[in-house]
Each structure stands twice: as structure tokens, then as C-alpha cells.
Write a structure and sequence with these properties.
Blueprint lengths: L2 H26 L18 E4 L5 E6 L5 E8 L13 H9 L8 H10 L5 E4 L4 E8 L3 H13 L8 H15 L3 H13 L12 H6 L2 H11 L5 E7 L3 H12 L20 E6 L5 E10 L7 H13 L4 H9 L7 E7 L2 E11 L3 H17 L4 H18 L3 H14 L4 H4 L1 H7 L2 H11 L6 E6 L1 H13 L3
Parallel strand pairs: 2-6, 7-11
Antiparallel strand pairs: 1-2, 3-5, 3-6, 4-5, 8-10, 8-11, 9-10
Helix pairs in contact: 2-5, 2-8, 4-9, 10-17, 11-12, 12-17, 13-16
Length: 466
């Protein structure tokens, strides 16, 4: 019975000795060495060429994994829809996945799966995308499959009713979510007469679409001269180029890409979407800002990260860490072709809707009145430079950045000198950017919440400039 005590005694003495030594050990502990300056992002040298039909092609050997991403970007996004054609681009994309003139939907999926991947067709504001990831050895076959889906879709009428029903369910779900409601109302205020401001159709609009509408949309918006094929990863460049020239050679050039130019509206608006009984208020506060082509754009990105766009940002530290008003506030500079807006988003407890806005406005004013310290700015610069390089350290990330350059009409140096430009931003620049572009008196405010509980809290912001 005594044996455990005999074993425990030396252990106890050891713990006591460690406790006595702890202060001296702590005193000897050294701070880790400071990290080196972030390195510039190096873009692998691509092979670029254009087919006679106008298709632009960029081949980028990248990475060490034996995989490849094949992505065809086509100027066929929602911006090309008419006022009564919302989500016609989505319906067209869904029908394109239902097979080609020679392959059924099941056969398309089986071919992509046999190559170690899949193929998808998606739609964004400015572009539609056809492509996916496969094993590198199958890159030429994947190029041929992407070309078949993009240039020879069957668009079967037999699937039209099912796909419209799928979109109707998606519409019902999205428009019942407070974040989607608030974003739609926010975008409508900023772009009242432009496709960027029309996010959701009515169900009646969806159900009214016919196969003729889909054929018309496809015919008007899909063509080689409106497209750019990107191939990134580990692949045989000669074999892939030969496959591209053969697979896309017969695709027609298509019509000119004529999207209406956005003319965002800058105005002070306070609007409430009533959600009786809501436990939270969803806040969207923002305004149009400069496009990525502007020389101040990088400094705006740095300012956004410091203000609300990073976990260590001021607004996040204030209303999340210090006040506990919200779990995940976030701000961003949201860009489209030659267009951008800044927005602060937050889901806050209903009872602190007004106090949350007071703190958000207060942080903007504080940055207008006083530049950040060099130390605070350096932390944000390191964060932004580091995440930029990490985001681009993948096949998909690299394609996304190269496509961003094309959409915005920017030179390759935008990527290679991005880190250098971030590090060149000064505290005075941040203050100037905030004063110039982030003016509370010009901001649109949309709040989705229980009107009976938040109207009084919003009263100070209805007529007065915060």
C-alpha cells in the first residue's frame, strides 16, 4: 500500500524544483526573431497566344502536384442580362451541364471523373466559367471536354422544367436569408438602373423562361472572341497547345461583348428591412469607391484591412473583441469590371444595433482625424502582403489573378509589384484615403432587423450626419 507513495514523492519534489526555477527560466526566455520583409509575388512566365477565331489562351506551368486546372472564362455573366432576364445566365449555365450534341450529361461527368476530377459551369457578375481540375496527364483531354461543353451544348428541353424548379428553390432559400436580403437592397441602392443592382428574379420571371430564351442568351453571349482559356498546373505544354487548337478551332467568334457601363450612385440613405422577431440586425454600410485601375486602389485595400477587413482590424477589435456586439464583422472592397464599392457588414444583436453603428462610424471618423501608428500599419501591411501571396499559391488562385488583370485591363506588374506597393503605403496615406473615399455622410445604410426594436436606435442616423 505504500508503494504509490514512494513513487509519488520524487515526482512531487521534481515539481517543486521546477516551480522554484520557473522565474529564472521565464527571465531567460527570448522573444522570437522578427520576420523578414514579405517578398514580391513572382508570376510564372506564361505561354500566351490567340486563335484565329479570337479565343485568347494562357498556359501557365505551375506547382509540383501532378494536377491541372482548365478554366474557360467567357464574357457571359449577369451583366449581359436585360431588366427582365435575371438569372437567365444561371439557367443557361445549368442547361450547358446537361450534355453536348455528342455526350449525355452522365457521359460528361464520367469522362471528367475518369480524369480524376469534375467539370462545372458557373456564372458571376461579369463572366461565366467552364472548367475544373484533373490529373495533369489528362490536360489535353480536359481541354477537349471543356471545348465540347462550351461550344456544343445540347441545351435539352427535357431538363428545362427541372432546372427551373431547382432555381426556384434556390431563390426561395436565398431571399429568406437576412444577409441576402440586405445585400440585394444595398446593391439596388448603388446600382438602381444596372444589372449589378438586380440580384434576384421573381419566381414568375423564372417560370416564364423558355428554351428559346436560353438559346437566344447562349447565342448572343457565348463565342470564342468573348472567351479566355487558362490552363495552370503540371502538364505537357506542346500537347495542350495542340489540343486547344484542335478542340476550339471550329468555335464561332460570337458577337461583341457590350455590357452597360456601371454608374453607381453615391448618396446617404438609411433603409430598414423589417424582420419581426429577429434576434439580430444585419448591417450593410458602404458606398461606391475607385476602381482597381486607380492609382489609389492599393492604398484603399490597405486602409480597408486596417479599418475592418482583417481579424486584427479596428472595427472587428471594437465591436467583436471589446464590446461583444457581434461574432464576425467584416469590411471589404468589392470589385467588378472597372467598378468597386466599400462595405462594412455585421450581424449584431438587436438590442445593440444603434451602439454598433455608433462604433463603426466612430472608427471611420477616428481614422479620418488621426493617422494610424507606423507599428499598427506595419502589422496590417505584413498581413495583407502575406495573404496575397498565399491566395495566389495555387493553380486556381493564379488563374483568378490573371483573369482579374484581364477584366480590369491591368498590366502584369499589378501582381508582381503588389507587395511593394502595399509596403509603400504610409500612415498619412491611410488618413488621406479615409478622408477622400470613406465619407460617412455619403454612405448607404441598409439594416435588416425587427423594426419595432431598432427604429428608435436608428433615429439619430436618419437625418443627422454621424
Amino acid at each position: 500500500m505504500r508503494r504509490p507513495m514512494a513513487i509519488a514523492a520524487p515526482a512531487a519534489l521534481g515539481l517543486c524544483a521546477l516551480a522554484l526555477l520557473a522565474p529564472s527560466l521565464s527571465a531567460q526566455k527570448q522573444a522570437p526573431p522578427e520576420g523578414g520583409p514579405p517578398k514580391d509575388f513572382v508570376v510564372p512566365e506564361p505561354r500566351s497566344f490567340t486563335l484565329p477565331n479570337g479565343l485568347a489562351v494562357t498556359l501557365v506551368p505551375y506547382g509540383t502536384l501532378p494536377k491541372v486546372t482548365v478554366q474557360l472564362q467567357v464574357r457571359a455573366g449577369n451583366v449581359y442580362e436585360g431588366p427582365n432576364e435575371i438569372w437567365l445566365a444561371e439557367l443557361t449555365a445549368k442547361l450547358m451541364k446537361e450534355g453536348t450534341t455528342t455526350l449525355s450529361a452522365a457521359q460528361v461527368a464520367a469522362q471528367a471523373s475518369a480524369m480524376g476530377g469534375d467539370l462545372d459551369v458557373t456564372v458571376g457578375a461579369d463572366q461565366a466559367s467552364v472548367g475544373g481540375d484533373v490529373l495533369g496527364e489528362f490536360a489535353p483531354k480536359m481541354v477537349a471536354l471543356v471545348a465540347d461543353v462550351a461550344s456544343h451544348p445540347a441545351l435539352p428541353e427535357s431538363e428545362l422544367a427541372r432546372l427551373k424548379a431547382d432555381l426556384a428553390r434556390q431563390l426561395s432559400i436565398e431571399t429568406s436569408e437576412p444577409q441576402s436580403m440586405t445585400l440585394a437592397a444595398f446593391r439596388k441602392q448603388l446600382y438602381p438602373d444596372h444589372p449589378y443592382g438586380r440580384l434576384y428574379p421573381t419566381e414568375a420571371m423564372l417560370q416564364a423562361y423558355t428554351l428559346d430564351d436560353v438559346h437566344r442568351y447562349y447565342g448572343a453571349n457565348y463565342g470564342a472572341a468573348r472567351a479566355h482559356l487558362y490552363v495552370s498546373g503540371r502538364f505537357d505544354a506542346k500537347a495542350v497547345e495542340a489540343a486547344v487548337r484542335q478542340a476550339f478551332d471550329g468555335w464561332g467568334s460570337g458577337g461583341a461583348a457590350e455590357a452597360p457601363a456601371p454608374k453607381p450612385v453615391t448618396r446617404r440613405v438609411v433603409d430598414v428591412i423589417d424582420r419581426p422577431g429577429a434576434a439580430q440586425s444585419t448591417i450593410y454600410l458602404g458606398l461606391p469607391v475607385i476602381s482597381p485601375q486607380d492609382s489609389d486602389y492599393t492604398a484603399l485595400l490597405v486602409t480597408n484591412a486596417l479599418l475592418g477587413g482583417a481579424f486584427i482590424s479596428r472595427i472587428t477589435s471594437n465591436i467583436r473583441e471589446q464590446k461583444g456586439y457581434t461574432y464576425s464583422p467584416f469590411s471589404q472592397v468589392s470589385s467588378r469590371a472597372h467598378d468597386a464599392y466599400w462595405v462594412q457588414m455585421a450581424d449584431v444583436t438587436t438590442a445593440v444595433t444603434g451602439p454598433s453603428l455608433k462604433e463603426i462610424y466612430g472608427e471611420i471618423r477616428r481614422l479620418q482625424n488621426e493617422p494610424p501608428s507606423a507599428e499598427e500599419l506595419k502589422g496590417i501591411q505584413n498581413y495583407l502582403a502575406g495573404t496575397f501571396v498565399l491566395q495566389n499559391s495555387s493553380r486556381q488562385g493564379l488563374i483568378s489573378q490573371l483573369n482579374f488583370l484581364e477584366v480590369q485591363g491591368l498590366p502584369r506588374s499589378y501582381l508582381t509589384e503588389f507587395v511593394k506597393r502595399v509596403r509603400a503605403v504610409t500612415p498619412a496615406d491611410v488618413q488621406r484615403i479615409t478622408r477622400t473615399y470613406l465619407k460617412p455622410e455619403n454612405m448607404t445604410l441598409i439594416v435588416a432587423g425587427d423594426r419595432s426594436k431598432i427604429d428608435e436606435q436608428l433615429q439619430p442616423y436618419q437625418s443627422a450626419v454621424p
